[in-house]
Amino acid sequence: MPTLAELNAATQTDFTAAMEGVYEHSPWVPARAWSARPFATLAALKHAMVQVVRQASHDEQLALIRAHPELAGKAAVDGALTAESTHEQARAGLAHCTPEEFARINTLNADYGARFGWPFILAVRGPRGTGLSRAQILATLARRIDNPAEFEFAEALRQIHRIAELRLNDKFGFMPEQGHQVWDWCERLARHSEPPWAERGELTATYLTDVHRAAAAEIAATMRDCGFDQVEIDAVGNVVGIYHGTEDLTAGLAPSPGQGRVGEGPGHRPHGFPSGSRRLLTGSHYDTVRNAGKYDGRIGHFVPMACVRALHGHGRRLPFGLEVVAFAEEEGQRYKATFLGSGALVGGFDPAWLDQRDRDGIAMREAMKHAGLPADLPAIAALRRDPARYLGFVEVHIEQGPVLSSLDLPLGIVTSINASVRYVGEIIGMASHAGTTPMNARRDAACAAAELALYLERRAGVDGDSVGTVGLLEVPGGSINVVPGRCRFSLDLRAPSNDQRDRLRDDVLAELAALCARRGLRHTIEETMRESAAPSDPVWQGRWEQAVTALGLPLHRLPSGAGHDAMKLHTAFPQAMLFVRGENAGISHNPLESSTADDLDLACAAFTQLLDQLAAS
Q1: ω before 38 within 30° of 0 (cis)?
Q2: Predicted model pTM
Q3: Which of 392, 351, 381, 357 is nearest to 234 (CA)?
Q4: What pLDDT digit, counting tens, does each position of 242-296 carry?
Q5: 16/24 Cα distance (integer angstroms)
């Protein structure tokens, strides 16, 4: 079993020989990576080999893809696979396909090869490294046949890097134990799902449903198992875990693992402090959208929980306390009360929310009482935290986008959560006969909306980091043979700063007015949501950057286009976020959302580095 010290001292020939089999039949990859020595960490070695492939020519990349065998293909049948591929395919059960499965996989292999000209590549050991099922492999192959060729080429390379990562783990005897723990917690928590999604194996857990409450109870139980000193479910359903620092203990607050009453923490004020002590606040949400992914929000409390578990296991205390909050509501699915959980900590709970009703007519006040919560404004107001008693707020989150995946980077530093504004509008023209109305006499509302959408695409692209979307487009009562007289549409505009967002908004609204005037149409427009940008605090962003650098990884800074709990906490605390790469091109709010145990392990390592920095300072 090699060590990094041995590899750093090795000749190029010896280094290449030691890395044999990591990249299938492609010794040129480690041979070129040799020049990037010394490698401070295993993650740095992995990244160096990824960079070699990224910098290779297209022909070299294609040859690397073609060096891999088909899954359960002729090479497997003839026993001609490498030892590594034989082990991986056997581990996935591909040596035990039923006749039907074998026929299906060979048909799909043939169709895939005919479409793309290279074999289907999949890291069959999967995101946890313990193996995908044959059903998962077949479903992935069937799905990826429909990908565009350039996308599938990049995905094949990403899968090759994942195969190499797992082979390197084997060579070095490395197990991403904290990543496994976080991955397992996410998978286990996803068992709590509402009907009818649960019956289809899908995930939905909306605010204060029985499923949501069961998820909260499981998170609380896991916090206690990790060694948190105080655990409670507060007045809005947030799960709060506190791991005391030495300041707390010096002030006489003895560690006594337990759970406060629902809606009340130990001492009735779970966030009450002994004199002089301070805490770091962290966490994310555990509610989901409908038919959700398993990692959105949830890794934001599970990663710090894994770190507390390690601290407790080593009997270690930090100079400061650590408060981890699994926020009860962020998505606004059951009630239109987005960021309810994190908002309560900064005095942002809207009293009118208590009277909102869900699709079944149940008021939020009733749902809270059914959950055993007080549904009482003074109790909710008491959740507000005193910023002077906190060091800041940090959040770990799956990226929910394709950037880190496209760059082959496991972690990213968030520079700002984008400002956003949303509108719903309608363009009003004149409905007329599609056959008898000349083109120059039409008042076509749908064409005007299409022109606006294309303008938005061009205008947002000019900024480079603004985005604009027309997500809703509807012709009310439309007919195939009628020129549309009305067209309803939405606008979603986002940018890294308020000023940039507002310039985009002004230009888009001006274009809407101009094109309607030019076409002889009317329009209405209504703003439905506005959120200010939440730039990362420079000091806290710098701490994340130091943490990632300490892992031997390059820094990549990026804005967050999606909203997060950190943008609500930003109103009271200095905040900064760390993004974790998502699989499947970073898809989120979707069952295909995923992350690997190795990437989650790096997130845990980065969080630990951040804690160590604070402790040292």
Answers
A1: yes
A2: 0.91
A3: 381
A4: 999 998 777 666 555 454 434 444 333 445 666 568 999 999 999 999 999 999 9
A5: 13
